[in-house]
Every structure is written in structure tokens, then in C-alpha cells.
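Weekly structure sync - notes
Attendees: PM, LS, DV (DV joined late)
Agenda: review two folding runs queued last week.

Item 1: First target. Sequence and C-alpha cells pasted below for the record.
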Amino acid sequence: MISTTVEEPLHVFDLPQIYQKPSGTDLIKALALLALQPRAFGTSAEAVKGPAVHPAGLTRYLTQIISSPLSWLETEELREAVWDAAGARLSERSGRAAMPAMSRIFNIPTSSGEDYTLTLHEPSLTADNLGMKTWVSSYLLSRRLHELLESPPELVPVGSTDRSTTSSRNKPVRALELGSGTGLVGLSFAALKGRGATVHLTDLPEIVPNLAHNTALNVELLNKTGATVTTGVLDWSETPTPPPAAEERFDVILAADPLYSPNHPKWLVDTIAPWLSKGLNARVVAEMPLRDAYLPQVHEFRQRMTDLGLAVVEEGEETGYDDWESADGNALAVKCWWSIWGWSEKV
């Protein structure tokens, strides 16, 4: 029986050895013990801890399994399962960027004190699909949404100056998420608002299939809360033609970690401009990391939003920990800026 304690970590010699021709079940159980998870998102630097495993000889053990024909196992499916598990364990030990596809659980606070649980699939990370990873600013914003949108400060009180807003007060809020990625923020908003909102999650063509998959993964929660969620492609670099009609615009636009190219501040604001409702209660809710390399883009975003006629209603900074690690294995703190924007005057 394989066992491990803090005092006596699991050693490679405690595992089923290939020369002994162990059963497929024993191999899969042993490989499950070796599974590593990325760091948990959060506001502390605590890592997710699994069984203590002595690293000596572990890479060789895994490569032996991968290179073995496993000819004593009865079915090809069982052999494939063992090879896949061994390959996954090897990938996990090559850093966060090399980890295989995974499903992750996120708990979303609500104003009632109950947590909603979202399950998100993240494909293996490559340089051309960074949008399929959940980033810490999305995590932080998803956990802040129930506070931010309960009763945001109003630039102009709802009243006689804006009859259209008053007459539409009972209609569901139309919300649009830009650069949804895995969908954490948009799905959180949808679950929190329930029947009070319709939410459209958008991203580039190569990201939308996984976004739609994550929406389907959470259908039970969305049905429970009465949420309406759709997904679709929206490329910020393309100007909508013809411009959206008034009834096609959105009351709330969400964006998390949207700036990672010099072009993005302009593209993002140019996308917000036609799609944001002109009502005085319209809001843009954004959160982005204050990484040194992208501070010029953050400043440009703020200036372009102001030039568009939007003003900050509320803002703040917070620090979270992404699931990356520094070279010494410690969690990396990420300072993020969140902001809520509204029209500075009736437009």
C-alpha cells in the first residue's frame, strides 16, 4: 500500500515498478498520487499542496512508463490511459506553461453570503492561446462583482433628465464581455444577476469554442439562477458596419486583463464606443494588472476613455496571486487596478 506523510515523503521506489509488470489500475492510482495542481488564485501566497514526493528519480520513472510498450496490459485503452497520465505528470513538472489541459473550480461570492461554483476548462497553454487561460485580474474581478454592481455611485441621479432610463428600469440589463477568455467574469456576472440580465461573452474565433464549452459546463448553475448567456466572435480591430442601433447596445461592458499589445488601448476603447449604451446608467467595469511592461497601455486606456466622454465612477487597487511561480518557487504577487466608468454627461 502506498502511503506518504510530511515526515516520510513518497519515494520513487515506493511506486509500482515497470519490471514488476503492475496492473493498469495500480499504475493509474500511483500516477494520480503524483499529480500536481497549479497554485490557487487568491489574495494570499499559499500554494496548493499535494502529497509530499521526493523528486529524486521521478523524471526517469515517468519516462520509463512512457517509453514502455506496457504489453502485459489487456487493452489498448488501458495502455493509453497510463501513458496519458504519465505524460501529464511529466508536463506538470515542466512549469505552469507546460501543464496539460485541466478543469478548474472557482467559488464566486454573492451578496447573500452563498458562494456560486463555476467549472472552467483550460486547454494546455501555448503562446498563441493565452486567452484560454484564466488570469488573476479576472479572478479578482469575479469575486468583486457582487459588491461593485449592487449600488454603484451614479454620475447623474436617475430622474427627470433621463426618461428612457427610468422607463427601461425593469428590463433585464444587457451585458457584454470583451475578451472573455475562459469566461470567468461574464459567467460570474450572469450567475449573480440571474434573470435580471442577459450576457453576451465574446472573444476571437479561436477562443470562442472553449468559451462556449465553459458556458455549457455551467448550465446547471445558469439554469438555477435563470441566467441567459450567449457567446460569439467580436474582433476589436474591426469597426462594426453598420454601427449598432440603440437597442443593440449594452448597459454594462465587462473587460478583465484586456491590454497586452500596444494596439489594445485604442482597439478596446474604439470597441466600447459603439457598443456601450448612451444612457446615464451605462457602465464599463474593467480590471487589469499593473505590470511594468504595460503601464503605458493602462495610462493610454485611461486617457482614451476620458476623451470618449467617460469618467471614473469608482476605482481601486488590489493584489492577487496568479498561478505562476517565480524561479525560487514562490507565488508572484500581481497588483491590479479595477475601475467603473460612466458617461460624464448625457450624450
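Item 2: Second target, run right after the first with the same settings.
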Amino acid sequence: MPGYGQPGYGGVPAGYGQPGYGAPAGYGQPGQGGPPAGYGQPGAPPQGLEMGHGPYPSIGSGGGVNPQVQQWFRAVDKDQSGFITAAELKAALVNAQGQTFSETACNLMLGMFDKDRTGHINVEEFEKLYTYINQWLAVFKTYDTDQSGNIEEKELTNALAQMGFRFTPDFISFLVKRSDPKEGKVSVDSFIVLCVQIQRFTEAFRARDTQQNGTVTIGFEDFLNVALSCSI
């Protein structure tokens, strides 16, 4: 049906799923306070923590890493190596159901900010990731209208519509079941993965939709390239 999910009809707003960019105006204030309670909140930093010691950059009066972010970094960096791996990130992030974030979500988010491709992130990269996660948590809570800690089909339809996508009910149902085949609900970590993946495919589609009419002709190898490059 014309208009369903076509990039020419809006697409993901600028900043959705892009590292280093903020969520739309009004979606929380990243960097002020920790993640919302119950939504991916790492454990509290150890008591008696002293700032500016160990392998981490010290916080000077002239700027640098936010002191609160540095505390979170130390709490997550269990081996005190000065770096955070996907496994450490997974152990620290918990969704509203008390389950740790999926390995897929943690690898995806860490990979976005691991600019030197070392397999881990330092405190400066973590600060960007911290902001990114807070922005997505705020977006998720906006569309989780019943505050259940999950997004269901109707809520996902509204969320994607606000992002400019007009998908059919059947496709929305497919997305939800793909995220959670058993209960048909989308947790916050699955929501992040889903939105980032849709954005990646949208960008690939838009690059090939030269007429901006919502249709493309694509060769088999190019199709495989898109599928393998955009899949998570």
C-alpha cells in the first residue's frame, strides 16, 4: 500500500539511533541524573569511590568527562581495566523485567562508539554511549504509555508512526513477534535494536530510491550487500 514505510514519508527523525546525536527536543535531559529507575539502570557506584585515581582520566575544573558518568564507568568496569567490554555492559544494564540487556543490543551499542575497533570502549566513548542510552530510554518511556516496561503492538505502531513510518498491521505484528516470539512484547533493549535496524535499512533504501517514489529496483548482489550490511 502506498506510503507504508517509505522513506519519502518522513523516516526516522534526525538523531534517532545515531551516536552523538540527541533525541528529539523534549525527550529527557541526557547527562542529568542516571537512567530512569528500572530502565537499564546500572548498579550504584561503589561506596567510598574516590574520583581521579586509577587508569581513568581525572576530572579537572576546565571540563572533561562528567563526574557522574565517570562513577557509572567505574561501576561497570568490573575488572578495573580502564575499558568496558560488551560483556561488562551486558552485566550492568537491566530492563524493566529484571533481565539483562541482550547480547545483540550490547554488541550493537558498544560497536557504535568503539571508534578504534578494539572491542572495548574507554571513558570518553562511554560518556557518549551513556548519553545515547539515556536518550533511548526517554523515547521508550514516552511510547510505553501504560508504563508496563514493554512496548506492545499498538504502542509500537504509534512510535513508528511518529518516526514517519506507516507500516501495515501485519508488518508491525511481524516486528513484535520477531522481538519476542513467546509473549509478543518489545523490551527496551529490543526496541533500540529494532529502531536502529529499521533506520539502517531505511538509509540503504533511500540511497537507491532515486525517484523518491517508495520503490527500488535492486540486483541480487546489491540486495545481499544491503541485507548483510544492515542486519544486526
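Discussion on item 2: The mean pLDDT is 76.
Action: LS to circulate a short write-up before next sync.
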